[in-house]
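Help needed: design a sequence for this.
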């Protein structure tokens, strides 16, 4: 039977009745001792969690006083140590629920098991187990806070990245932004310079005005390059309907494959009215 089980109300009531029946000269002393033991049942009732951290120091001071021969009884010291261990156990269990999923619970679980499975009423043992549980709670709380900080940092970084991407998309989706994207893309991918960009600018200014939302109701041609149908541009990206850069990527690829260069496409458009 563990120390906690021995302190159950039924066991303590039986002990008290046996002690109360004694009629020896030491009856008063025995009854007082029994009352001190019965007082320990208070730890089985709702615990005073807020006193959990203060109790170890108090218990240590009382133990010291007993060792120096003060009037404080060993039973009182043991009661204080037991009360503290119960308070700490309750707090450790609540801490476990609070940090679950946010910290490694190995140390805390071990401390909780040690308190629950303790068979000894020894004050030093109770104090040692209580101290270990308090340390485990402190370590676990710190780990949970570090986890929360890392999650918050990652969320902030993701938000900043999303904001930057949204800003870049908004800038690229303006006519001037689309021109800048096209000039950079054609130089990087195809080696086309300023002369080819002049031809491209003339071509797409006439086709769509560099408006990524441009739509020809008569033919169904769509976007900056006036792809027909617009869904052709899905080969360059699933966001073809909302992203000027995706449309430009598809348009440059189409020009390179069909006319060789933007000036070749512009020449054909001037002679035939389409490209």
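Sure. Designed sequence:
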């Amino acid at each position: 039977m563990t120390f906690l089980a021995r302190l159950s109300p039924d066991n303590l009531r039986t002990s008290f009745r046996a002690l109360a029946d004694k009629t020896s000269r030491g009856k008063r002393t025995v009854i007082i001792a029994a009352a001190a033991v019965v007082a320990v049942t208070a730890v089985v009732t709702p615990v005073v969690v807020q006193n959990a951290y203060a109790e170890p120091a108090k218990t240590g001071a009382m133990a010291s006083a007993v060792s120096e021969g003060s009037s404080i009884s060993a039973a009182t010291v043991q009661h204080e140590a037991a009360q503290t261990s119960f308070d700490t156990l309750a707090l450790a269990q609540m801490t476990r629920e609070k940090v679950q999923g946010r910290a490694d619970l190995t140390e805390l679980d071990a401390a909780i098991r040690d308190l629950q499975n303790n068979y000894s009423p020894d004050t030093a043992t109770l104090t040692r187990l209580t101290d270990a549980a308090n340390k485990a709670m402190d370590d676990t709380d710190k780990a949970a806070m570090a986890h929360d900080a890392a999650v918050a940092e990652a969320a902030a970084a993701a938000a900043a990245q999303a904001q930057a991407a949204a800003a870049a998309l908004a800038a690229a989706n303006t006519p001037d932004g689309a021109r800048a994207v096209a000039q950079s893309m054609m130089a990087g991918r195809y080696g086309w310079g300023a002369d080819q960009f002049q031809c491209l600018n003339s071509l797409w200014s006439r086709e769509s005005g560099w408006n990524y939302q441009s739509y020809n109701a008569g033919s169904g041609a769509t976007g900056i390059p006036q792809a027909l149908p617009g869904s052709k541009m899905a080969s360059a990206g699933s966001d073809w309907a909302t992203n000027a850069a995706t449309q430009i990527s598809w348009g440059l690829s189409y020009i390179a494959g069909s006319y060789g260069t933007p000036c070749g496409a512009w020449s054909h458009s001037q002679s035939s009215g389409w490209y």
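Residues 11-59 have pLDDT under 50 and may be disordered.
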